[in-house]
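Morning. Coffee machine broken again, so started the prediction first thing and wrote up yesterday's gels while waiting. Chain of 389 residues, entered below exactly as on the submission form.
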Amino acid sequence: MTENLLRLLEGVFNGISTGSVLLLAALGLAIVFGLMGVINMAHGELMMLGAYTTFLVQNGFKSLGESWLDFYVFAALIAAFLVTAAVGFLLEKGVIRFLYGRPLETLLATWGVSLILQQFVRSVNWVIIIGLVAFSLLYFAALWILQKRPNWDAIKSWAIAILLPLSLAISTTIAIVVAQTYKNPVTQPWFGAQNVDVTAPRWLRGGVAIGSLQLPYVRLFIIVLTIACVIGIYLFLEKSPWGLRIRAVMQNRQMSSCLGIPTKTVDALTFSIGSGLAGIAGCAVSFLGSVGPNTGQNYIVDTFMVVVVGGVGKLVGSIAAALAIGTTSYLVGSGTFAGLLTSVKPLADFFTFFATTSMAKVLLFVLIVAFLQYKPAGMFPQKGRSVEL
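Came back before lunch.
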């Protein structure tokens, strides 16, 4: 009996830690989806960028000396948040803001962005970076100068039509010249298609022993990190002026705009925060396994399930759904349920059939579909006049 209890506790703990990662990723996605109705299929790739940022920060601290490696996690969390928040800001300004109110188009556009980001990570080198920097300086600096002209509105279309191909041609020429001049040092991919490993600092190795049960420090750290992020998001949404504006826009966009709330700024801020949370989730994921271009694809489906089951835009719903999905998936997929029910032959055979990661996900999908038939709006549906209309 004691052995079964310990096995159950271990499964629940691992499931909660898995659910914590899902919750970190789903927090931003739930807010973005609830506020703007944007189906962001590139959210998993933002997690991937956060994981790669952690890898780069680790290497940077490693070059400073072994003693610095114990502290790189804190710098990696900040860097992952800032990098992915910046990418999210650019994504919102460059793609998403033109597609509000058209969820199918946002799904297709962000799916295309996700493929671009995957290939970018595989191929990125100094030539690509130099070309992108040159294009940005030429194009956006020229636009900034021209916007100061009094007749900007009249020449806007012509200016963009001329500047875009011209900046692209000049930046491409610069990149080609650099590649032919320096060759291997600048054309070598930074990461490539292979996975990279992030090493946890010494204070995150090992675990807490409770009898024969071992609770890894890494998973405890992820749970604590998730709790800190949930508290931070709650305080931001409930106690800060911008959090009030975000909640107002989420409830009724038209009325908020009439009251003077800058909805476009709110959209950009919300998308950036959601993207930054995905970066933090990617940092946490990097401690659990290798990091590769397809890392985000392993979590995007489960993250959307958390959002839908919990209730779009609901923090409490996301917490409950993430913990339930993570725990159930681990207990079924690891064979814990099958081992605990050996005395009940039919149930033991049933859970043994689903005791793999892929089959556990199939069973989870079936359970979620059945649940949504009963509560299609999720555990905690949105309320408000905009929802009723």
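Residues 385-389 have pLDDT under 50 and may be disordered. Going to sketch it on the whiteboard this afternoon.
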